[in-house]
Amino acid sequence: NAGVTQTPKFRILKIGQSMTLQCAQDMNHNYMYWYRQDPGMGLKLIYYSVGAGITDKGEVPNGYNVSRSTTEDFPLRLELAAPSQTSVYFCASSYLGPNSYEQYFGPGTRLTVT
Amino acid sequence: AQSVTQPDIHITVSEGASLELRCNYSYGATPYLFWYVQSPGQGLQLLLKYFSGDTLVQGIKGFEAEFKRSQSSFNLRKPSVHWSDAAEYFCAVGIMDSNYQLIWGAGTKLIIKP
């Protein structure tokens, strides 16, 4: 299993540009999450999904959109990028079952908006 | 409201010395508890977890943690640290609100002195 994969690893955007961060998991997990991590800070939840076709906002959803058309994929869309969106973005997944509530993380996407 | 507190932003320990990282949480029910480690430039890796049963849990890389219900704590310990343990450590609490989420601490950066 590849686990949770994210592309790209790095990206530089100009203010006002848009992009999609890709996330895929091959563990058949029902839950998927997008977090951002600012320098020296913990994780903040942007959006999450409890299954294909179902998404919900987290703590910091403004400026982002998500969709979940399949169990495997959970892309994060940035519209009109702003410098405040400079961060490292992590995708995670989890399967809620007996003794199985932990999240598995991708390697992250480092995004700079200038 | 639910919260997770890691009171130490940085901790410096000599190589070979013992380590204890503190984590306190606020949650009305018995939570699911996790410790993750993040090496520089990497994603998050699960060190250990507690769901129920024995309150002393063993994890990977020689780490252990103890759940103390009376103190709402889940402190991480290692008897003898190695230079490769230098990383950031995150405590997280799994809660079931409208859906299942992890509430994250802000992290503790571990610095190892040679």
Short synopsis of the structure:
Chain A has 114 residues and is mostly beta strands.
Feature tags:
heterodimer, A: 114 residues, mainly beta, seven-stranded mixed β-sheet, 11 strands, 49% strand, globular, B: 114 residues, six-stranded mixed β-sheet
Q: How would you explain this protein's 3D organization?
A:
The complex is a heterodimer of chains A (114) and B (114). Chain A starts with a strand and ends with a strand. Chain A has strands at 4-7, 10-13, 19-25, 31-37, 43-51, 54-57, 64-66, 76-78, 87-94, 104-105, 109-113. The mean pLDDT of chain A is 93. Chain A has no helices and 11 strands. In chain A, a hairpin with a 2-residue loop joins strand 5 and strand 6 (54-57). By secondary structure, chain A is mainly beta. In chain A, 0% of the residues lie in helices and 49% in strands. In chain A, the strands form 2 sheets. In chain A, strands 2, 4, 5, 6, 9, 10 and 11 form a 7-stranded mixed sheet that branches. A 4-stranded antiparallel sheet of chain A has the order 1-3-8-7, with no helix packed on it. Chain B starts with a strand and ends with a strand. The model of chain B has no long low-confidence stretch (mean pLDDT 93). Helices cover 0% and strands 55% of the residues of chain B. Chain B has strands spanning 3-5, 10-14, 19-21, 24-26, 32-38, 44-50, 56-58, 64-68, 73-78, 87-96, 100-104, 108-113. In chain B, strands 2, 5, 6, 10, 11 and 12 form a 6-stranded mixed sheet that branches. A 4-stranded antiparallel sheet of chain B has the order 3-9-8-7, with no helix packed on it. Chain B has a two-stranded antiparallel sheet with strand order 1-4. Chain B has 114 residues and is mainly beta. Classes of the chains: A mainly beta (114), B mainly beta (114). At the A-B interface, strand 5, strand 9 and strand 10 of A face strand 5, strand 6 and strand 11 of B.
